[in-house]
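Page 42, continued from yesterday. The earlier attempt failed because a stray header line got pasted into the input along with the sequence. Redoing it now with the clean sequence only.
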Amino acid sequence: MSSQSDARVSSRAAAGQAEIEAARMLLERMGVSPEQLLGAPLERPRVPTFAEFIPTVAATVSPGTRRVYSSYWNRILDQWAERHLDEPTATDVERLLAYTRTHTVARRNARGGRSAGEHLISALRCIYRRAENDGLIDPSRNPARKVAKPRRLPSSRRAVANDRLGEINQVAAGTGNDPALDSLLLRLHTETACRRGGALALRPMDLEPTHCLIQLREKGETVRWQPVSPTLMAALLAHAEQRHAPRDGRLLRYATGRPITTRRYDHLWARIGTHLPWVTTQGISTHWLRHTTLTWVERNFSPAVAAAYAGHSTGGRDDTTATYTRATQDEVITALVALTGEPHPLLAEPS
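This time it went through. Structure tokens are written below.
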């Protein structure tokens, strides 16, 4: 037994020596000595500064991501523009997080800077994820991985009661410099539960009047065909025609023909709040309309129908189960018909 073990050790040593000799011969042919190899510094790509790298990252992300993160990238540039990506430590990130949470713009729905802190960490991780993928830093040197995001608190938004919703619509339709536009906005969001981004991205070419469908493009680059009532479809078509919206341009426009932006929503809710103080006190916004509609659909139909109505893939349920139980378009249209009290052309067609 001992002789066999000795033979195996001798064989492995001989094989190892042969590999060493082969490596030495290869180095000699390359004109490199073992000493030079040991003393040579490892070549690594130059690590850029934040000022150099953030524009590169911004050019690779979607417009929606860029819109959310841009203000936080600007805040990072204010503090770290000339620092290289491998310089900040986890402690530096925590300091920047604390500074961001205490220097946020005070909004109606402010919650101690938690949202700002969460977005700052996400914006930093976006930068460092790209740096890791490009081989600029080692994952173990990524300080954004080592700092936890502030825990997100449950949303304070909830469904708006019917009588309160009626008051909101009444003020929108009876005040301001463009009540027709504001009424259309509220109807669009209440009926479809779409987000602001989906409404602002809507184009005349996204309207399918024969079957009363509109194509919504929202966050996460999601695209879906949402059913609408004949009344809303007619209003959208008339708005596009009267305000000369190009087929492939933004549909929602001011009377001058200029496309609206998020500022229209800000002014709308500020104006409603002057007439209905509880709107300002509670911080009610367009997203509350989404909560209102989806809550109604969930209560009167099912979570699966509410998830489909919202454009969610699973509605927060197990992904495997949702594959089999997600709602059909007919079920979404049935909910819409119950909500609006109007017939829909697709329900009359055979499935």
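Notes: The chain has two domains: 50-146, 162-348.
Reminder to self: strip header lines before submitting.
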